[in-house]
User: Fold this.
Amino acid sequence: MAHVSLVTLGVDHLDFMTRFYEAMGWCRSTASIHGTVTFLTGGAIVLSLFGREDLAADAGIPASSGGGTSVALAMNVTSEGAVDQALAAAAAAGGTITKATRRTEWGGYSGYCADPDGHLWEVAYNPGFVLQEGGRGQPPDE
Assistant:
C-alpha cells in the first residue's frame, strides 16, 4: 500500500522556519541536525525542513527561488475553533493568511496560509473526515 510518511520542504532560513512550525504545534524531533535538517512530528506524518539549495543539490536539480505554490499541504483539525487557532498561530509566527477562513461547499470550515517561504497550507475542519488516534486522517470513503 502506498502512503506518504515524510514531506520535505526546501526552506531559505532553517532556524526561522523551524521556529515557525513549532509555533504551529509541530514538535521538533531529536533526530534533527542543527543547521542541516529539522524533523518535526505532527499526527501521522513527519515534516522535514531542509535548506532549499541543499535540497536541490540532494535531488540533483537547480535551486529555484520560487516558493511552494504548485503544492498545497493540508492540516485537518477537530473543530472550527482549531482552524482559527492554527491560522492565528501561523500569522503570529510570520506566516501570511492567503485565504481567510470560511464555510465550505463540502460542509466544512477552512482557510489558507503561506509559511514565510511561500509553502501553502490549508487548515481545515471537515466533519466527514475522521481523525483517528494519532491524527491520521480517514476520508469518508475508507
Observations:
- The radius of gyration is 15 Å.
